[in-house]
Amino acid sequence: MKKKLILILSFMVITIVFLNIGRSIYMPFVNKVKGKETVDSRIKDFQEKVWDRLEKNLGLAGYKMDFPKEIIIVAFKEERKLQVYSKDYNGIKLIKEYPFTAFSGELGPKLKEGDKQIPEGIYKVEYLNPNSSYYLSIKVSYPNEFDKSKTKLTDISDMGGDIFIHGKSVTIGCIPIGDEAIEEVFLLTQKAMNNSVKVIISPRDFRVNSSYPKIEGIDWENELYEIINNELKTLPSSGYI
User: Are 124 and 196 in contact (CB under 8 A)?
Assistant: First the structure.
C-alpha cells in the first residue's frame, strides 16, 4: 500500500512538472496534431494567466484595466537581458525585465549567415509566429537598411535572417527568454501591433557603461553604437521618465 501511494505521488509530481516545464517539448507536437494555430487562438489559451502575472507591473506603469498600446523592446547582449517598456502621453515606463535563457556569439553585429551572432541595431517587429518550434516567437526585422548598407560593398553574399525572440532555452543567433516570458512579451506585442513595435538590440547597456566595444573586422562599430546609444538615451535607466 505504501509503495503504491509513493508511486502515485511520484507520477503526479512528474506529470505536474512536465505540464509546466515541458511545454516547449510537447507544444510543437500538439500544434501539429491540432493544426495551424492563429495568434488569437494561442493568446486565448494564456491571456488570463499572463494578465495575472503582469497585473502588478502594468498597474505600476499606469495600466489598470488594459495593456499598453505602444511598447519598446530592448535587448542587451552583455547583460543578457530583455526589457519591455510602455510608451504613452505619460512617458516611457519599464514594464518588466527578462533574462536570456541562452546565448550565442559575442559582442558585435551580425554580418552573415551562420556566424551565430545576435544582431545589433534598431529594428521593428515584423510579425508574431504562434506555431513556432520554440513555443512562440516574434520576428525581428534584421537586416535593416543600416545593416545592408555596411555589407553591400563587401564579399558577403548572404547576411542571414530569421532572427526571432522566442521561448525555450536554445539559440544560434536569436534571443530565447523561456516559455513563460515569451507568453508575456508575445501578448504585450500583440496588443501594441497597431503601432510599430521598436526593437533595440545593443551590445551592452550604454546608460550604465558608456564605452563602445571594439569589434574586429569592421571599422563602423562606433557609428552603429552612436545610433543605438541615442535611442537608449530616450529610455529611463530604471522605472520611468
Answer: yes
